[in-house]
Amino acid sequence: MKKIVHVAAAIITRPDGSFLLGQRAPETYYTGYWEFPGGKVEPGETPHEALVRELQEELGITVEAAHPWLTREHVYEHAHVNLHFFEVPRWHGELQTHVHAALAWQRAESLEVGPMLPANGPILKALRLPRAMGVTQAAQVGIAPQLAALDRALAAGLKWVQVREPDMPLAERTAFMREVENRCAAAGALCSLNAAELPEGFAPARGLHLPARLLMQCAQRPEGEWVGASCHTRAELEHAATLGLDYALLGHVLQTPTHPGQADLGWSRFGELIADLPMPVLAIGGLRPEDMELARSHGAHGIAMIRGAWN
Ligand SMILES: Nc1nc2c([nH]c(=O)n2[C@H]2C[C@H](O)[C@@H](COP(=O)(O)OP(=O)(O)OP(=O)(O)O)O2)c(=O)[nH]1
């Protein structure tokens, strides 16, 4: 077996959602391929320290904030790499090309450069996943008020909705699911349907969301463009990772009226539980839009909100 080489790589983001890629220079493995800036972790360094050093050496920039995001393994002919991806939302300095043949700001949904390093396909898919999910609560507020709130949220830029309606009668649920899917599609938003509530023969258009109980019954990834799961424990998160799911939700981070009396995880336990996972994890439980930055500073990809999404 090849020795594992630890690598730190940066998703350097701009407020418009674009991120920086570098083209590998001649006389390296995979010359001409595009990568996220970064490099090997040296003995005695943490991945975070390596990231800060590499970005100074490669790009001449000083990192102000870097948050762990995903960790993925890949076996190349030349090395077995363990890639520690960080999000770098804040830095200063003038970008320079000290080691790359070229640099380019790109967007995951419309990449203009290529090819990417082979290990990075899932990273680009993860970067296409929206940062905020709104979870429906029509059985509590009523179908018409929920659809009106959905329209307002989509118009305001919400790009991801999970239909979760365990208390909605089956007869109403089919029509409600189709309606939410249609409104999301018209707004260019992803709609994930809760797998425990799917009426017989109803296939989600794009997104399938597994509650933890169904997740733990799956021996392989269910079919679908986007498949994710709700998790409460490290074992559930690891099972979601083994299945190759596209994302997980982990909660409840804060106290929430949805699950009264259940102990909340808190942010530091949340950060520990999601460490070194290969897929994005969103925080859920008592969260509001203003919690986004705090969540991301603890390694979350973003946040899922029930009440907080619709006000
Ligand atoms: N920096 C970076 N490396 C990546 C990404 N994806 C990916 O598979 N890798 C791999 C390619 C390399 O095997 C390793 C990064 O090592 P590196 O760039 O420091 O070193 P290298 O292989 O070019 O060679 P060298 O330092 O030995 O000269 O991680 C990525 O997005 N960014």
TrEMBL record:
InterPro entries found in the cross-reference section: Aldolase_TIM, MutT-like, Nudix_hydrolase, NUDIX_hydrolase-like_dom_sf, NUDIX_hydrolase_CS, NUDIX_hydrolase_dom, ThiamineP_synth_sf, ThiamineP_synth_TenI
Keywords: DNA damage, DNA repair, DNA replication, Hydrolase, Magnesium, Metal-binding, Mutator protein
Enzyme Commission no: 3.6.1.55
Residue ranges of every copy of the Nudix hydrolase domain listed in the record: 2-131
Entry cofactors: Mg(2+)
Catalytic activity: 8-oxo-dGTP + H2O = 8-oxo-dGMP + diphosphate + H(+); 8-oxo-GTP + H2O = 8-oxo-GMP + diphosphate + H(+)
Domain of life of the native organism: Bacteria
Enzyme category, top tier: hydrolase
One example GO MF annotation: hydrolase activity
Family: Belongs to the Nudix hydrolase family.
NCBIfam families membership: PRK08999.1 (NF006530)
Protein name according to UniProt: 8-oxo-dGTP diphosphatase
Lineage, opening ranks: Bacteria, Pseudomonadati, Pseudomonadota, Betaproteobacteria, Rhodocyclales
